[in-house]
Amino acid sequence: MATHSHEHGSSHSHDHNPTNGNGTPHGHSHEILDGPGSYIHREMPIVEGRDFTDRAFTIGIGGPVGSGKTALMLELCLALRNEYNIAAVTNDIFTREDAEFLTKHGALAPERIVAIETGGCPHAAVREDISANLLALQGLHAKFQTDLLLIESGGDNLAANYSRELADFIIYVIDVAGGDKVPRKGGPGITGSDLLVINKCDLAAAVGADVDLMETEAKRMREGGPVVRAVIKNGVGVKETVDLILSAWKSTSGYSVSRKRWAAGAPRGSGEQPKVVRDTRFPRQ
Question: What are the recorded Gene Ontology BP terms (predicted)?
């Protein structure tokens, strides 16, 4: 048991290497958070030494279970695939359900989608031990010479976020069903992401949420960092999200790598595209 002090001046003890409740090791350590985090002082993308010829610019999508991460993955694939060479990695605890959803709905050709079964805590696979995801992304890039890579974490809590060794641009998705309180709770997902998406805004009245308040609180907690209101299943907020991704990518040397490939004759887009299958209950806007 480790004892240490925090800024509030008191000392206390807790286990930095927790167990699964039966005395067996949990498998990885957890970061100890002393506050809700800061957008301005968040962990920034790696610039020095980042080799985009080894792995393309990577967009990491995180958020609680059911917030709309996979729906956003689908919309981003459809928005980017014709002009840019992309591929995707999904994370589930014990299934391949998210990858199967993307394949079923024609997001990309099946060979461009890799599913990782994380087991245990899904945040560990995108922060503490990123090896499986990193290898999957590198493998997709080596196979397809991608411009952009997308990765979706398994559903987790507000304390979960990506390692910058894995994601160059981090999107965190919450939804109105969690209530007005979610943005002001803070945590690495809320404050440390490059973009916060508030999804399912069309359901606000049904669940008693105030979207204006959520956006105000989100911008306050994020110190002015970007926030997008969305109804992802209807396409609302997708263009704004794509624009922010492309702006971030074009500010890196990863964009220069792609431009050199295009100048050398590399084809644009993501190859032959499967037919898109949409749920007709949700009209596009």
Answer: urea catabolic process
> Who's near 245: CB < 8 A, 6+ residues apart?
59, 76, 148, 169
Tell me the DSSP string of 103-126.
HHTTSS-GGGEEEEE--S-GGGGG
For residue 177, the number of C-alpha atoms closer than 13 Å in the C-beta half-sphere is 9
Q: Which domains are seen in the chain, by residue range?
A: 57-260 (3.40.50.300)
243, β-bridge pairs: none
Neighbours of 115 (CB within 10 A): 18
Which pTM does this prediction carry? 0.86
| Segment holding 62, helix H or strand E | strand 57-62
